[in-house]
Amino acid sequence: MSATLHSPLSSSLLSASSLQLQERRFFGFAAQSAKRSSDFKHKKLFFSIRASASSSSSLDAGLSTELDVVMGYSEIVPDTVIFDDFERFPPTAATVSSSLLLGICSLPDTKFRSAVDTALAASECYTIGNSDDRMSCFFDKALVNVGGELVKLVPGRVSTEVDARLAYDTHGIVRKVHDLLKLYHEIEVSAERLLFKIPSTWQGIEASRLLESEGIQTHMTFVYSFVQAAAAAQAGASVIQFFVGRLRDWAHNHTGDPEIEAALRRGEDPGLALVTKAYNYIHKNGHKSKLMAAAIRNKHDVFNLLGVDYIICPLKILQSLKESVTPPDEKYSFVRRLSPQSAASYNFSNEELLKWDQYSFASAMGPAAVELLTTGLDSYASQSKRVEELFGKIWPPPNV
């Protein structure tokens, strides 16, 4: 079975080997692979995959793999440190982020480092007197320059991270996205190829509403509660990303979250239950949002998420799915657990169908979402600050 994944969203942190491998494939570079920096030990590369016709050619007639079957229900996004299976799983989409910029700056011989150096040579940033504002200008230019290179490499969309330090400033987020979009237009990248990754605070969701009304696509992240997902869907967000395993981890070590405890009483995994409920809500109410499930821990998670739009899957699980041959009589025993048909019969309470204001939203989030959202924002903000501090040390760059 052959399948192609079209324009999926993904989050990419490119390691040294993966960056150079892409350059060799796309540009014919003959440079040897550089030794990986220790900075990349815990970084992730998220790329959506397309199964080639040859991926199952060695199987007996009538047989398929679990991966083939799963890809018939959802678009799969490999989650890996080094993308060393490039030919079988070519990338189709990517994300440019503060973490990616930090990684690029540790690899001076990559094509992407040239994009950063060019950003640091931007004359319009030179005249900014305040050093913090000047570094922010360089930061935006670097994000866009690298994003522009990624657009050339992938046929799908490129998501650009919006500074997490603006997470509680609706108009600050909107201004930042407009600034980034203007820079993309200057390098002739159209808005159709772009998404903007925004934290799912109340202010972030309101920013998404304003941006989507202008036709600017948004990608909401750090969604850990139903109220976040429903509010983001009501705002018209293009993509809503959940972290299934993180909610499970929180539930193992904490109590007191009504939404999680309700799922546990029903005998359900809280992360899977949240994605299911959000999916049913979105389809029952006709919202356009696509859902992405991340922090997947095992094949059971994948099977329980069949039908969700995107699944970010660790390479080890992908390899296991690919190596598991499914006889014809078992191939269709896989159940699509998420479908518009099942969503139509799902019953929501009157409270769950309401539109929230800022105060009811905050009270409905629950302690798990509040804690996990705060942790994510702190991490992203710290990375952004590190990028600006690094730029301050290397600016102006040599040989530009």
Write a structural description.
- One of its GO terms (molecular function) is transaldolase activity.
- Belongs to the transaldolase family. Type 1 subfamily.
- Pathway: Carbohydrate degradation; pentose phosphate pathway; D-glyceraldehyde 3-phosphate and beta-D-fructose 6-phosphate from D-ribose 5-phosphate and D-xylulose 5-phosphate (non-oxidative stage): step 2/3.
- It is an enzyme of class 2 (transferase).
- This is transaldolase.
- The chain has 400 residues and is an alpha/beta fold.
- 49% of the residues lie in helices and 12% in strands.
- The protein contains 18 helices and 11 strands.
- It has helices at residues 16-27, 66-71, 98-105, 111-120, 123-126, 131-153, 170-186, 202-213, 226-235, 244-253, 258-265, 270-284, 299-304, 315-323, 328-331, 340-344, 358-365, 367-394, and strands at 45-46, 64-65, 75-80, 94-96, 158-161, 194-199, 218-223, 239-243, 290-294, 310-314, 325-326.
- The protein has a 9-stranded mixed β-sheet.
- α9 (226-235) links the parallel β7 and β8 (239-243).
- α6 packs across α18.
- It is globular.
- It starts with 15 loop residues before the first helix and ends in a 6-residue tail after the last helix.
- Mean pLDDT is 81; it is low at 1-47, 49-61 and 80-86.
